[in-house]
Amino acid sequence: MKFTIYPIIYYSQKFIQNILYSLSKKYRINIISFFEFMEDKDYVIIKLDTNKTHSNFPSEYRVGTDVDIIVLDKDLSRIKSKILELNSNKKLRCIVIEDNQNIKIRYQFGQFLNFQYDLSTNTTSNLFNDCLINRKNLKNLKVPEMKYELLIRAKELRDKPKKKHHLEYLKKHKNQIDFDLLVDYDMDNDTIQKIKNS
Q1: Residue 83: CATH number of its domain
Q2: Which has the closest alpha carbon to 58: 42, 23, 41, 34?
Q3: Whole-angstrom Cα distance, residue 193 to residue 189?
Q4: Are strands 112-121 and 65-71 parallel, antiparallel or unpaired?
Q5: In what side-by-side order are the strands of the sheet with 112-121?
Q6: Which one, of 137, 122, 168, lies nearest residue 35 by Cα?
Q7: pLDDT of the residue at 89
Q8: Higher pLDDT residue, 20 or 127?
Q9: Partners of 107 in beta bridges
């Protein structure tokens, strides 16, 4: 019988990963103070309603999740600085990934994501700008009106079809979808049919 050490290495790695993941749950970043800072800013959180979002967000959050926020282009740098100022937790490693209109600020314990801010500007697309203009309050947070949230989900479904939760969300809210608005935003026919047939 041939002996292989692969299972030993694999399960040892999984064991270490589980320990690190459990340790990462002990550390928290300051999300509440961030949204207090954002009260007088123009912003919207998109894709907030997912099965991974904690029901008491932002008071609590699930380790390994993120928040997607659209902000004004002129505020992006100041918002980034505020996040870094509020969350100087020495136990969590901060990684900042930037391009022209998007900043990801990741807090990790070892290789495990604790929490991520994903900031995009209103200049990224007409849709993002329209989400900022057409917003409402939800639990003291600013989110897009439902028809624009559904547009965001349709775009995500088109761009990342393997993420099935967007299709489930669209299916759940199908009676609220403005299909003419999808066409106005150049949504492709295949995606529209997929939503209609869901």
Answers
A1: 3.30.460
A2: 34
A3: 6
A4: parallel
A5: 43-46, 65-71, 112-121, 102-109, 93-98
A6: 137
A7: 66
A8: 127
A9: 94, 115
Residue 102 forms part of a structural domain: yes
Please classify residue 146 by burial: count the beta carbons closer than 10 Å to its beta carbon, then call 0-12 exposed, 13-18 middle and 19+ buried. middle
Q: Which amino acid is at 170?
A: L
Residues in the chain: 198
What is the residue whose two structure tokens read 């100087």? 88
Tens digits of per-residue pLDDT, 39-81? 999 999 999 988 778 888 988 888 889 999 999 999 999 999 9
Residue that is written with structure tokens 């320990």 in the block: 19
Q: Is 96 left (phi over 0), alpha (psi -120 to 50) or beta?
A: beta
**pTM for this structure?**
0.84
Structural domain includes residue 18: yes
Q: Are residues 174 and 91 in the same domain?
A: no
For 153-196, what is each residue's pLDDT tens digit?
999 999 998 888 899 999 999 999 999 999 998 899 999 999 99
